[in-house]
Amino acid sequence: MGFKPVQSIGGAPYNGKVQTFGVASGHATLLAVGDLCTITGTADATGLALVDASAAAGLITGCIVSIEPNFSNLEQAGLPAGTAGKVKLAVDRNMLMEAPSSTTVAVTDVGGNSEIVATAATLSGGLAISNMTVNTAAAISGTAQIRIEGLKDGGTAAGTILYCRINESTLDTVGV
Q1: 171 lies in a domain?
Q2: How far is CA 124 from CA 120, 170, 174, in A?
């Protein structure tokens, strides 16, 4: 499932606004809708900023909401490792997303921050599936990637869907 934009922190529904980024042919993992990505600090030949899958404990630019099709291979799922392409990211820091928890979550974790589990996407039945989750097993700290804003349906078991937002963003960090 990965991360899925659902609404702004102010309550307005997600309206589909995205920014287009390039992905270099040297990226190492399958990318899927729902993966979090980070600007790499370079650009493609047209000047488009490049991104790659976010890592645990790093800054985040946004969430993949679509991947431009490869017209020479219309059966391609996701963006395979080693394949250049373009992705559309939802980059608003005030956007609430739904994401699964990696382990059991406590109601007292709401309002805290946590890192992500940056597991690479996998293929299943011809679909690319994001496996990124919120690392609810890690200590909640003030300086972590994701802020937990709520529990969808009040669940606390592993895999519970959390409402969360990006806490450590490349969009407002000096020097990135």
Answers
A1: no
A2: 13, 31, 39
Structural domain harbouring 79:
4-166
pLDDT tens digits for range 64-93: 999 999 898 888 899 999 999 999 999 998
Give the C-alpha separation, 46 to 7, whole Å.
32
Please report whether residue 173 resides in a domain: no
Q: What is the DSSP letter of 43?
A: E
150 exposed, middle or buried (CB, 10 Å; 0-12, 13-18, 19+)? middle
172 falls within a domain: no
The average pLDDT across 53-62 equals: 94
pLDDT of 156 above 70: yes
pTM (predicted TM-score): 0.93
- Alpha-carbon distance 153 to 149, whole Å? 13
Question: What's the full length of the chain, in residues?
Answer: 176
User: How many structural domains is the chain composed of?
Assistant: 1
